[in-house]
Amino acid sequence: MTQKVLMKGNEAIAEAAIRAGCRFFFGYPITPQNELLEYMARNLPKVDGVFLQSESEIGAINMVMGAACTGARVMTSSSGPGISLKQEGISYIAGSELPAVIVNIMRTGPGLGGIAPTQSDYYQAAKGGGHGDYRLMVLAPSSVQEMADLMFLAFDKADEYRNPVMVLGDGVLGQMMEPVILPEPKEGNAVEKAWATTGKGNNPESKLITSLYIKPEEAEKFCEHLAAKYRTMAEKDTRWESYRAEDAEIITVAYGTAARLCMAAVDMARDKGIRAGLIRPITLFPFPSAPIYAAAEKGARFLTVELSTGQMVDDVRLAVNGKSTVGFYGRSGGMVPDPRDILSQIEQIESEKTGTTAATEGGAA
Amino acid sequence: MEHRMIFAGFGGQGVMLMGQLVAYAGMLEGKHVAWIPSYGPEMRGGTANCAVTVSDKPIASPIVYEPTAAIVLNQPSLEKFAPQLTPGGQLLINSSLISGISPRVDINQVCMKANDLANQLGNLKVANMFLLGALIGLTGFIHIESVVGALKKVLPPHRHNLLEVNRQALQKGLEYVTSCSQGA
Description:
The structure holds 2 protein chains of 2 kinds. Chain A is α/β, with parallel strands linked by helices. Chain A has 13 helices and 14 strands. Chain A has 2 domains: 4-192 and 207-236, Thiamin diphosphate (ThDP)-binding fold, Pyr/PP domains (Rossmann fold, 3-Layer(aba) Sandwich); 240-354, Rossmann fold. In chain A, the strands form 3 sheets. Chain A has a 7-stranded mixed β-sheet, sandwiched between helices. A 5-stranded mixed β-sheet of chain A has the order 9-11-10-13-14, with helices on both faces. In chain A, strands 1-8 form a two-stranded antiparallel sheet. In chain A, helix 10 links the parallel strand 10 and strand 11 (276-281). Chain A is globular and about 70 Å long. Chain A starts with a strand and ends in a 14-residue tail after the last helix. Chain B is an alpha/beta fold. Chain B has helices at residues 15-28, 75-81, 114-121, 127-139, 144-154, 163-179, and strands spanning 2-10, 32-37, 47-55, 69-72, 90-94, 108-112. The interface between A and B is medium-sized, with 24 and 19 residues.
């Protein structure tokens, strides 16, 4: 039987990436994700991989792009300000339809911010981040086990869709230790990469990887192609988890660390006889609108909880589409909500049960 | 039962290691565990702390709220964490470095001159193990042998000569609270 090991989230990501076939890592240190780089520096050379600490984040992301062009499994990781520096490269990678995995263990912002846990990079991660009409697939683990598991998915989906995938965590997830059963190592890439620029070979035409479409007609065709890809992602690869939500009248929506806090709050609410639940998006893009809308149609009311001043709540409101009410509770700047405070918010919504429900926020018409 | 614990002291007193050993030991016993450190500027010379949850059920929040127990190894840690304990919680105080106790009357406080006891045993570094032994004596949430088993995994083989002194410290810490009367 595979043994449980006690690992930090950052280390679990690194080990799982290596097991998923990642052989190239380019990055630059920043707290709170340094254990990830350190682990890669120690262990990638042991499997004939390349760890390179670049001169800057901009250098790192462009090295990622170069390695991705060859079809290699490649990743980088950083936090907040470092991810901002990488946005130009990420846009180019998306525009060139290259697979790569980018890990953001969020720290507070804007600007230099601080190293405490936050979820304030949601917009940047889920809405594009760099210039142009593109999306990343964004995976949001909420435990060390899930951090390991989702790394396999990240590399597989990056290859499948030829699109960068972001794994979005925070300081809590990166720094905490939990038992983890590491997935078995995987050799070779699952997807044939005929497009990789590894030489012309016997092909009649040279291979070209580019994001330059100077004619609007061609550029539009390409943008439509990307949009179709994202629609396929939404159809096939939207992931979420429900916790005690089946009969819930009040549903919290939260991801990552906030979801763990909400689980505790939901348990407390249930102990008090309040029918509370949780819908936890695992993919932030594509966003799990369908289960949220379905619950809204059944009359559930929503409370979005984030470690920010409110970003994902926009997507929850779009998903609910006026069918019910959507409240928000968040802490920011590195402060972490206490589950008892989330419980108070749930109780507040419960106390408003009689009287105005959906009617004040657009109604169900 | 969910045990939510804080281990706090100066950097270098072994609070991070103590927490990791507890998490590891809990895992070895098949329990659900989570360990989370303070990782900010505290790491650089000031106070350091970590939070550990050991539970029979899956752990919702890895962040500890209303801790059921706290081991404090220095004065600032006593002042910071004593007020956070849940009523009925266990507060273990390293009286070698801390003067006084918390004014709270709704928690169980145990004072132990852990540094002095560790010195008597010939190794100041096991002061943390005396206090951990006491916590195990009070709550029985894990077994001493599991902590030793965890140490065996965490320490490199050439340090395994330290296992015995750690075991003794844990045992003496446990006896400290189980032999004397707890009425006071």
